[in-house]
Amino acid sequence: MKRVTAFVGSARKKHTYDAVHQFLDNLQSLGDVECEIVFLSDHRIGVCRGCKVCFEKGEEFCPLKDDRDLLIEKMMASDGVVFASPNYSFHVSALMKAFLDRLGFVFHRPRFFGKTFTSIVTQGIYRGSKIVRYLEFVGKGMGFNTVKGTCFTAFEPMTEKERQKLGRALARQSRRFYERLVKSDHPVPTLFMLMGFRMSRTSMRLELDDSSFDYRYYKDKGWFESDYFYPTRLGALKKAAGHLFDSIQTRRTGKKKSFDT
Ligand SMILES: Cc1cc2nc3c(=O)[nH]c(=O)nc-3n(C[C@H](O)[C@H](O)[C@H](O)COP(=O)(O)O)c2cc1C
């Protein structure tokens, strides 16, 4: 049995909700999958104050007391996660963005390894596909195995042709998602993912110390010595690329330091 949770960033149960519902129904027809839809509007999600205490001391010191931890627990208890949002002013909705900001520390200390992620974006007219790409980047940054998302246009009322097009897109997306969901392996990181890992750990090593929570987290996880966030087998080329990313970041940090002083 796999567990999938979809987080919906629209305050109304309309197109985004309908598409999520259809996607989850498809998943359930493909195998033994238990699903939950979480409406962000049903939860208390505070607006980040920007104190950065979560980065420096740890997320438990955040001054905001809202449903953040409950939502994270839901993600941790899931094998798969969907972020679904309408396009509002060419970005995710404010609800979804507030939620992502509450998870800002996860980009510093990714944790959703082995879990599958995808996104669904509804738009009235235009630019939703950029939001799908943004959410894919977000998913990767949090440690998920990401599966290409779907953007669709929902005129009101939706035409039959659009409905059919959406149905086909969601059917493809649910198959891709299911295939990833049932795989137990951790994928070998792409060069881009490896670059993110190596550059951020190099700058942490050079710029932070034991007084920083991020630094201690990396140290405790053994990430300053490991090939990647999780055990993986890097080929000779990727190993060499890893060293190259380390030295590029070392040079950049050196330049930044001499500029700062
Ligand atoms: C405040 C607001 C801003 C919006 N901005 C955009 C936009 O920039 N681009 C776009 O294509 N559609 C935009 N839309 C249209 C919504 O993306 C569209 O109606 C979508 O279906 C809403 O999702 P829902 O049915 O799940 O609420 C906007 C809608 C609202 C309410």
Any key phrases for this structure?
261 residues; alpha/beta; six-stranded parallel sheet; 10 helices; globular; binds flavin mononucleotide
Brief overview:
By secondary structure, the chain is of the alpha/beta class. It has 10 helices and 6 strands, in the order βαβααβααβαββαααα. Helix 1 crosses helix 7 (160-181) and helix 8 runs parallel beside helix 10.
What's the topology here?
Blueprint lengths: L1 E7 L6 H16 L2 E7 L13 H4 L11 H9 L3 E7 L7 H9 L1 H5 L7 E8 L4 H14 L3 E2 L3 E4 L6 H22 L9 H17 L5 H9 L14 H25 L1
Parallel strand pairs: 1-2, 1-3, 3-4, 4-5, 4-6
The structure holds flavin mononucleotide.
Structure, described:
With 261 residues, this protein is an alpha/beta fold. 50% of the residues lie in helices and 13% in strands. The protein contains 10 helices and 6 strands, in the order E-H-E-H-H-E-H-H-E-H-E-E-H-H-H-H. Strands 1, 2, 3, 4, 5 and 6 form a 6-stranded parallel β-sheet that branches. Helix 6 links the parallel strand 4 and strand 5. Helix 1 packs across helix 7. The longest helix has 25 residues. The chain binds flavin mononucleotide.
Strand content: 5-15%
The total strand number stands at 6
Low-confidence stretches: none
Ions and ligands: flavin mononucleotide
Rounded Rg: 20 Å
Cα distance spanning the termini: 56 Å
Q: Give helix % range.
A: 40-55%
Largest sheet features? 6 strands, parallel
**Structural class of the helices, strands and pairings?**
alpha/beta
Provide the succession of SSEs. Answer: EHEHHEHHEHEEHHHH
The outline comes out as globular
Global mean pLDDT: 95
Q: Please work out how many helical segments DSSP would assign.
A: 10
